[in-house]
Predict the structure.
Amino acid sequence: MKKDMHQKREGFSSSIGVIAAVLGSAVGLGNIWKFPYVTGANGGAAFILVYLLCVALVGLPVMLAEHLIGRHTKSNAVGAFKKLEPRRPWFLVGGAGVLSAFLIMAFYTSVAGWVYAYIFKSAGGMLISTKPEDTSLVFTTLVSGVTEPLFWQIVVLLVTGTIIMAGVTKGIERVTKILMPILFILLIIIDIRSLTLPGAAEGLSFLFKPDFSKITVGVILAALGLAFFKLSVGMGAMITYGSYIDKNENLPKMAIKVALADTLVSLMAGIAIFPAVFAFGFKPDVGPKLLFVIIPTVFNSMPFGRIFMVFFFVLTAIAATGAMLSLLEVIIAYSTEQYQWTRRKATLLTILAIGLLGSTATLSNSILAQFTVFGKTFFDFYDFATSNVLLPVGGIFIALFVGWQWGHTNVKREMSNEGQLKNDGLVRVYMVLIKYVVPIAIVLVLLVGLKILQFE
Ligand code: TRP
């Protein structure tokens, strides 16, 4: 074992800082870009209900599991398993997590690049139209280009790399603490505008009036995948952040707060978008471009819309950046602790590697469009392989590890802060969830959703 592994290990400096960083990881393009379009593509309210169940019964317990082992071991995703079970191959779960971080970053930096570009397009007046045809054209031109989207992807990597290099406290914690509240306030303003559009009611009923005939196994798999992606769980990001959390923090309480706040932000993004979708005569199932085409039309129909639109994309960029910090930190914590790389070297090599891989996602809308893996473009493949396969499978193993291998006594000790918190009942309920409910639910959804097991 390397002796100097834990010397001068950084951590989050306050409870507010912990919430900001963890929520900063959870809140991201997942809420503002993915949640609305996946909801739109899967029929609205019924999907949201299934999603909420997935968050409460699967996502949240896995988040807590990751925090528990992260904080206990004070190690990165791979190191945590190695410390607890040095003689068994559990560390492969962490290894798969590091791989997932690369794959998610590959497409995430691409979309974040579009968002960064939109800040400048909206400021420059290139998005001034209430006609969807016009805003569609701006989007298509951007993503089907070559140099422009690649340029923005590189900008994204440089920005996130710079913050990461500044460290956990001075980089991640400081940046997220300032920016999360601002995001929230802006969403409220935009929601008010959206709700007062003529025709808003149709959008609201799409969001909140479930039509259960729309639920299929594909829908359930999409909801489960989104729950993992949203809460940043299943690949060790929360093990890594957990390792920076103070031993006196109430972990279950914090995880619940984060899950609630994150869900609220998703619903608020839905309220910002769907009334406008229907008001302007769009279809809700247009896929990933939903945000980029609809939001400009909403802003353009309000006074001072251009300024608000700039703010909106600035804040979406911030949310995306906060989320990417956690993805990068998984790789950085791993390489600095397991290989003793300096933070600087680790960051530079990581963003270089992500840049190379990520360019294949970005260019899959243009020159690489005809290359496919399992019938999907690179972009779609990275997205599907992580959200719908790697994260849920990672979740199964994390749950099995904490529930069966690490076990009740250790969970109880860590969850109660060595007996300081009186939460025995909660621990017992939690053990049932993590030992049985989580793994069984995921296995079933995966088998059926990936068509390994078929009815009829
Ligand atoms: N949760 C983030 C979002 O919704 C994305 C994200 C950040 C993530 N870190 C992660 C997803 C780790 C999976 C795993 O945008």
In short: The pocket of tryptophan is lined by residues 25-26, 28-31, 104, 229-230, 232, 235, 237, 323, 326-327, 391 (CB under 6 Å).
